Amino acid sequence: MDTTHQSHLSMNLKKVPEGRMGLWVLIAGELVIFGGLIGCYLEYRLRYPQWSAMAAHTSTFIGALNTVVLLCSSYTIVRAHEAAQRRDIPKVLTWMSCTIAGGLMFLVDKGIEYYREINEGFTFTSPMLQQAGDHVGSLFWSFYYIMTGLHGTHVLVGMIVMFIIMMQVKNGKNLHRVELAGMYWHMVDLIWIFLFPLLYIAK
Amino acid sequence: METINQNNDNVIYPDAVHEYHGHPHYGKVLLSLLALLALSLVIGYIFSPAWAIFFIFATAVWKTSLVMRNFMHLRYEPLFLFMVIAAVLLILFAFFLGVYPDITAVPRDVTLPR
Questions:
Q1: CB-based contacts of B73, cutoff 8 Å, min separation 6
Q2: From A13, which residue of chain B is nearest by alpha-carbon distance?
Q3: pLDDT over 70 for what percent of chain A?
Q4: ipTM (interface predicted TM)
């Protein structure tokens, strides 16, 4: 048996902690949900070039700001994981608090953006566009609210889970769960990495 | 595939987990991600829409690779997990191809029933 084959074999036999294994399965499922939505969006976008006029109403500044916030919060949670491996509980709590603050900032930004868009008449069904006969334009906003709303829900769930884990870590328990919460948070970040160019840059 | 039970509260951080993977330089990864974000914003203003979408997606794939390999430590995982992710992407591609005729066959001036 050559060394490359041996190396692949040992990679396959390497023990995977059950929490990580479970999280990877969850991530695979989430990829299918969001991947399906993104795939459909792309096809409609290619079919209807007028969607670019609708995308022009989204705020690139807020979208970019939210991307920076999520990328930085991914960094803070991975630092929390690093601190958890050193069993440095105060640092874990500090980094996790920063991550939750990042999530909160993301949701506040998103709320401001929704407020602006709804005030302009762009809602889930956009009656204003429907009355003008622009059903295709209305469809863009349906996709927009489903994709960003579902993503925002995942951010909120991540924050709640992280808070629960923080309480456990505070009592010196379940430090390994910091990494699992981090993996979930990175997945939320990954989804946004694709939503941002689709909805905010490609105009 | 073997798994490690992490549910025992008395064993808060088993050695097997402690040594499961290493840590790359996270600061450098974050800087790379922010640089790619800036690049994708600039691309939108430089290229024509079709090319801009292509390059912006290429940077998004690059960012995804950086996050998965470094922040999610996929680079330390066994080949089996790569195959799970690859299978999911394959299913998505099949879905994309399957739905494509349904979407493209609809007339462009589609109107909904009142």
A1: B21
A2: B1
A3: 93
A4: 0.82
Give CA–CA dist B6/A195, Å, rounded. Answer: 34
Question: Closest partner residue to B63 among A21, A47, A193, by Cβ?
Answer: A193
Residue B72 host element (H or E): none
The residues spanned by each domain of chain B are 20-102
- Domains in chain A, ordered, with CATH? 20-201 (1.20.120.80)
Tell me whether residues A35 and B89 touch, CB distance under 8 A.
Answer: yes
Q: CB under 8 Å to B12, separation ≥6 — which residues? A: A172, A173, A174, A175, A176
* 3 state SS of A133: coil
Interface test with A, best of B81, B108, B111 (most A CBs within 10 A): B81
pTM assigned to the model: 0.84
Between chain A and chain B, how many beta carbons pairs sit less than 8 Å apart? 166
